[in-house]
Write a structure and sequence with these properties.
The complex is a heterotrimer of chains A (328), B (341) and C (304). Chain A has twelve helices and twelve strands. Chain A is of the alpha/beta class and 328 residues long. Chain A has a single domain, classed as Rossmann fold, CATH 3.40.50. In chain A, the strands form two sheets. Chain A has an eight-stranded mixed sheet with strand order 6-7-8-3-9-10-12-11, sandwiched between helices. A four-stranded antiparallel sheet of chain A has the order 2-1-4-5, with helices on one face. The radius of gyration of chain A is 21 Å and the shape is globular. Chain B starts with a helix and ends with a helix. Among the domains of chain B are: 72 residues, no CATH class; 157 residues, no CATH class. Chain C is mainly α and 304 residues long. Chain C has a single domain, classed as MetI-like fold (Orthogonal Bundle). Helices cover 70% and strands 0% of the residues of chain C. The N terminus of chain C is likely disordered. The chains are: A alpha/beta (328), B mainly alpha (341), C mainly alpha (304). The interface between B and C is large, with 52 and 44 residues.
């Protein structure tokens, strides 16, 4: 770990309590974000991307989730061992998350102004005991202006249901950048919107990140988006990181069978018919397969893959793969 | 706030429904019994006297005409004379209504307060023992009819453990001049604080008997909507932005969670008003419901129709109030967002 | 290697099963969902017990003749004992026997009220939903609004009072108040199902209105209707007990639960058993039907 490291997740395990036991969703996630770096996190739906990100902010559903093992080190401090005050500081000043579905992420019965206002208030409440209402309003309006919202003063008095999906997504982004942060987490921004608006949202994010020099973790299930937007990509499968490499390397030289499958399943504009895809689906988290979690779907699986989960192994500079195939 | 048109729409609908109700009452009081005049005077009255009363009741005219006369009279406040008290029904209503309103008002306060308190506790300590105890009590609470609870209270507090008064509105040692008809308010106006306290202690048992079922039902609704909302993304987002936990609980979680609770309030108040008919009888509470029950037992048709009409009116008003509170809590209702989508 | 299973797409072969076999399959699936909450099973036990007691009342009660104009001043006002389990009233009648007989009236009432109110309310709701937005819709729904504009118990009391007070008329009064709830429930579903593609398809293929309403729309509304019915049995018993408590239900000497409580209340506190035991009987019956209704709701919701 060098001094350029901003966030490092080590061997994170997260379980969800359900009827009949625990869903062992995260199974040893390792993850690193450097200062000013744009990191992509790719994987199919339900593989634990959002869970990993929510555990950074400690906003997993309380009571139903537990973290049996692992460390999340932010600026040299383990988030899992932080006091409540330190955690509040982390949430209000350091890290912000943009949720996948803007409609669900906004409280339906409060105005946009009330919601952004509180985010602004608590991001500066630590320094200033009394925050003036006027100041909150100006800062909220400025945040909306930064995401190119027309008529921010009016938007502040609106309720979420009065805005379109794209506008709601902008509001969510505005909340996250209303005060400067060191790390932004964008969970599939715009996936619930149509493609043109999704594109606008991504451009907007890129611009903001470049302007403010913020680190960003971009979660997506689209490899194309990850390639365009990020410096380095993590590929996740069923609660484990299977491969990570600088964006260009990953496309040039994918090693893990799952990454290769993912790349092959992207439909190509230049023809070639329907993409190949990967047979099967994400395993049952209640009774996950032994050893490598991808092994039951893997065409190269050997009996030894069922014994022990493979560890990340550096095959090239900054290129890690968790597969016995790569070690041989 | 575009509350104005919303309230206006609700008022118009209520007026329409009340006119419908008046037709039902008219049919019930004038058509179903066959000969109300004979019924009013008894079987031994001479035929010419009965005929005289039929004329007075306009029974020689057609039914729509009769209804029109009855309705216009009712709108002027003339609901006819009561058979039992021999007074105009409207006078009786004026005398007895405040006691019932006072009781129902306190019941509603009790219901809302404890429903939210218990519901929040159960949601906060979901699947812990607090939640379990509240759940068990709610099963039992919902299953005890108000009048059964009232009888138990009489037995317990009237005989076994007399710490609270069980009969009437005020101890006989007090006299309070009637101004508004609301006993606690009148006592306060007279500056008689001991009487006000005494009146309040008289309210406690009937109010609990009336409130219990609804309280537990609404506590369960509050709990489930809170648990539901707790797992929503917006709560996680607000936590993630560093908004303090207490502010999330009492602002961002409570407001959306109260919408279902308040929405069913109308039904629970309906049940309260209905049950008041029995509970007032048991606690000898001099309200409109006890008056109504007496009227029913003596087939006092004018009084029955007067009471049902006034209760319909009160119920319509409470429903409007409930709707306004819902509209206040939920901008989608207030600004027409639900219908539009 | 059980874990390899998820690789293969499992296609269950439709096995030839007997009619009975399939029937039991369904029953056991329903039972599984019903019995997941143990309280539902308790409710079912209470319901079954009450029904059996009510049906065989003359056989299971120690003094069946006490459920009528019977007088035995020698044993008047006896406290609970081995001879009179729940004591006797001031004219020497056994409270236990009278409670069991009172179950009969309560059950008959709730069955008859729902047997009339549910089909009537459902049909009106279906019609209003099918003719959504027309004059038929408006008329039906406004009429049901009128009946919902007064607390049910109040208007039921008024109706029962105007008619001659007896069990039959109290049932009529409650039925008149009960159907609009089902109209409202079914209307909400029917008016949205009405625009579903399968209904439009049936319409386009020339199906009759009768067919569309009763064969296409109705089956899709039934589950919530049955749920509400199961939950309503307890409420009807409650309303019936309230009416008889006031004296507008079953008339003495035939016993009714509410009437027994109000009779007993006059002899408090000396003959406390006269009102306390019928009151507990009311609570237990309503609790049983409520728990049972919750179980039915769970069952119908999760078996879909």
């Amino acid at each position: 770990m060098d001094d350029k490291t901003l966030l490092e997740i080590k061997d994170l395990h997260v379980w969800y309590k359900v009827y009949g036991g625990y869903l062992k969703v995260l199974h040893g996630v390792n993850f690193l974000v450097r200062k000013g770096e744009r990191v992509g996190l790719v994987g199919e739906a339900g593989c634990g991307k959002t869970t990993t990100m929510k555990s950074i902010l400690q906003i997993l559903p309380p009571g139903d989730s537990r973290i049996p093992k692992g460390e999340i080190i932010y600026k040299g401090k383990d988030i899992l061992k932080m006091s409540f005050g330190e955690l509040q500081r982390l949430r209000s000043k350091e890290v912000a998350m943009i949720f996948q579905d803007p409609t669900a992420a906004l409280n339906p019965v409060f105005t946009i102004g009330a919601q952004i206002g509180d985010v602004v208030r608590y991001s500066i409440a630590l320094e200033e005991k009394r925050v003036k209402k006027e100041k909150i309003k100006t800062l909220s309006a400025r945040a909306l202006k930064e995401v190119y919202m027309p008529d921010p003063e009016r938007i502040l008095t609106n309720y979420p249901f009065q805005l379109s999906g794209g506008m709601r997504q902008r509001v969510c982004i505005a909340m996250s950048i209303s005060s400067p942060r060191n790390l932004l987490i964008a969970d599939e921004p715009g996936t619930s919107l149509d493609v043109t608006i999704q594109d606008q949202i991504l451009r907007l994010l890129k611009e903001i990140v470049e302007k403010q020099g913020t680190s960003i973790i971009l979660i997506t299930h689209s490899l194309g988006v990850a390639r365009e937007m990020t410096d380095r990509i993590y590929v996740m499968y069923a609660g484990t990181i299977v491969e990570t490499a600088p964006a260009k390397d990953l496309f040039k030289n994918p090693v893990h069978p799952y990454t290769r499958g993912l790349l092959a399943s992207v439909p190509k504009i230049s023809g070639g018919g329907i993409a190949r895809g990967i047979p099967g689906r994400i395993p049952d988290y209640l009774n996950p397969p032994p050893g490598c979690r991808f092994q039951p779907r893997c065409e190269y699986a050997t009996p030894s893959c069922q014994e022990k989960p493979p560890q990340l192994f550096e095959i090239d500079k900054d290129h890690f793969v968790a597969c016995y195939l790569a070690q041989r | 706030m575009k509350l104005g048109p919303f309230i206006l729409r609700r008022l118009l609908l209520s007026i329409f429904v009340l006119i419908g109700l008046s037709i039902v009452i008219f049919i019930l009081a004038r058509v179903v019994p066959g000969d109300p005049a004979r019924l009013a005077l008894g079987p031994r009255a001479p035929e010419d006297v009965v005929e005289q009363l039929r004329k007075e009741l306009h029974m020689d005219k057609s039914l729509p005409e009769q209804y029109w006369i009855w309705l216009t009279n009712a709108l002027r406040g003339d609901l006819g004379k009561s058979l039992v008290t021999k007074r105009p029904v409207i006078e009786d209503i004026k005398e007895y209504l405040p006691a019932t309103l006072e009781l129902v008002f306190f019941t509603a306060i009790f219901m809302v307060f404890f429903a939210i308190l218990l519901g929040t506790l159960a949601a906060r300590y979901k699947d812990r023992w607090v939640d379990g105890v509240i759940r068990i009590f709610s099963y039992i609470g919902v299953s005890i009819p108000a009048f059964v609870l009232a009888v138990f209270f009489i037995l317990i507090f009237g005989y076994a453990w007399p710490i609270l008064p069980v009969l009437g509105r005020l101890g006989s040692q007090f006299t309070v001049a009637r101004v508004t008809g609301f006993m606690i308010l009148d006592s306060m106006l007279a500056g008689n604080w001991t009487a006000a306290w005494n009146a309040f202690t008289h309210l406690i048992l009937p109010a609990i008997a009336l409130a219990l079922g609804g309280t537990f039902q609404e506590a369960r609704i509050t709990r489930s909507s809170m648990v539901d909302n707790l797992s929503k993304d917006f709560i996680a987002a607000e936590r993630g932005y560093g908004i303090p936990e207490r502010r999330i609980m009492f602002k961002y979680l409570l407001k959306p969670s109260l919408i279902p609770t308040v929405s069913v309030m109308g039904m629970d108040i309906a049940a309260t008003i209905g049950n008041a008919f029995l509970v007032e009888m048991i606690f000898n509470w001099p309200g409109i419901s006890r008056y109504g029950i007496n009227a029913m037992l003596f087939k006092d048709l004018n009084a029955i129709s007067g009471v049902v009409l006034i209760i319909g009116l009160i119920f319509a008003l409470t429903n409007i109030v409930v709707d306004i509170i819902v509209a206040f809590l939920d901008p989608r209702v207030r600004l027409g967002g639900i219908r539009g989508q | 290697m059980a874990n390899k299973n998820f690789l293969a797409v499992t296609v269950e072969k439709p096995r030839e099963k007997g009619k009975w076999h399939r029937f039991w399959d369904r029953v056991s699936r329903y039972w599984y969902h019903f019995s997941r909450n143990k309280l539902s099973v308790v409710g079912l036990a209470i319901v079954v017990l009450v029904i059996i007691l009510a049906i065989f009342a003359p056989l299971v009660t120690p003094y069946p003749e006490h459920a009528g104009p019977f007088v035995d001043y020698k044993n008047a006002g006896q406290p609970p004992s081995a001879k009179y389990w729940l004591g006797t009233d001031p004219i020497g009648r056994d409270i236990f026997s009278r409670i069991i007989f009172a179950f009969r009236g309560a059950l008959v009432m709730s069955i008859l009220v729902l047997a009339i109110a549910v089909p009537v309310g459902t049909v009106f709701g279906l019609l209003a939903g099918f003719y959504h937005g027309t004059i038929i819709d408006t008329v039906i729904m406004r009429i049901s609004d009128i009946f919902l504009s007064v607390p049910s118990l109040v208007l039921a009391l008024a109706i029962a009072a105007v008619l001659k007070p007896n069990l039959m008329n109290s049932m009529i009064a409650v039925t008149v108040m009960w159907w609009p709830w089902y109209t409202r429930l079914v209307y909400g579903m029917a008016s949205s199902i009405r625009n579903d593609y399968f209904v439009i398809a049936a319409e386009l293929s020339g199906a009759s209105k009768f067919h569309i309403i009763f064969r296409e729309i109705l089956p899709n509304c039934l589950s919530p209707v049955f749920t509400k019915m199961a939950l309503d049995v307890g409420w009807v018993i409650l309303i019936g007990a309230s009416l008889s408590f006031v004296g507008l239900g079953e008339q003495p000497p035939t016993p009714a639960l509410g009437q027994m409580v109000s009779d007993g209340a006059r002899y408090l506190p000396q003959l406390w058993w006269m009102s306390v035991f019928p009151a507990l009987a009311i609570i237990i019956v309503i609790l049983g039907f409520n728990l049972f209704g919750d179980g039915i709701r769970d069952m119908l919701q999760s078996s879909r």
